[in-house]
Description:
By secondary structure, this protein is α+β, with helices and mostly antiparallel strands. Helix content is 51%, strand content 21%. The chain contains ten helices and 13 strands. Strands 6, 9, 10 and 11 form a four-stranded antiparallel β-sheet that branches. Strands 3-2-5 form a three-stranded antiparallel β-sheet, with helices on one face. The longest helix is centred in the C-terminal third of the chain and has 70 residues, at 236-305.
Amino acid sequence: xxWNNQGGPWQSRGQGPWGGAPGGAPSPNDIEDxxxxxxxxxxxxxxxxxxxxxxxxxxxxxxxxxxxxxxxxVQPNEIALNLVFGRYTGRTLPGLNTNWPWPVGxxxxxxxxxxxxxxxxxxxxxxxxxSESLMLTGDKNIVQVHFRxxxxxxxxxxxxxxxxxxxxxxxxxxxxxxxxxxxxxxxTIDGILTSDRxxxxxxxxxRMQKVLDSYKVGVRVEQVQLQLVDAPPQVVSAYRDxxxxxxxxxxxxxxxxxxxxxxxxxxxxxxxxxxxxAQAYKQQTVLDAKGQTARYDQVYEQYKKxxxxxxxxxxxxxxxxxxxxxxxxxxxxxxxxxxxxxxAVEPPAGAAK
Length: 353
């Protein structure tokens, strides 16, 4: 019976409901004495009602009360919380369970597996809610934010959700709005409208869970989804112009970087080629100078040994270099006053000029 599982008002006095020991069967003497007392109390009833009839009715009502109110069923998506005289005594899992019937006992069934949705900044059937959606960014701009929070009642602590907070759903909504305002307040308008949206959702979820855990609300936040992040309708056209200008600026920067990446390697290549040519010319010039110096030293050594012969040979070699590739005409200046040409001497075919 239910008083054996959950406890009852008689256990505090060390007795069972029929006067016996707790959890044990009532003795025949106790039952007989109780029946005799009831017969004595109801023996003077008018209308021919005997004490046995009244006792039978009372017992039937008591059995019906216990039989109909003791058993209850918990669905697979639920956890039941048992109360006795308003005091929480424990929880039961899905299936057939027992508790004291009303008004002694009470059962609260909590749908821990059902997904709950909280909308902030908008309503699915009502549009925008400016008092919730308008938020201030870190660079002192106003942004319109619509988001939803998917959450469930924590199956590990459903009693927190039922008993710790007066209005847990309103608390979840207030915490969600407060946390999102905090997250938005740490971002700039440009980041919120472009690249920071992906980071905002998990950040807001983790912050919400931390605050709700500190309040012991008994809620597990599963997901935060941004539905709309945009400038307010009154200034959306101006923000779009600003966004377009920023995109043009970025495009110009990208074009400049592309041109720089194209021209710079070419300039570096030309500079390297010029340096290499200069180095080659330098080496060639130095080697030529060293060769001429060495040749001069050799000629000078020969000159010291035979100055006349060396001077004559140098003269002939020089004249060969100067006149070797030129057309020559031989003149006889002794024949008369005017020169008389004899023959024009041309260099042989294939000779160096």
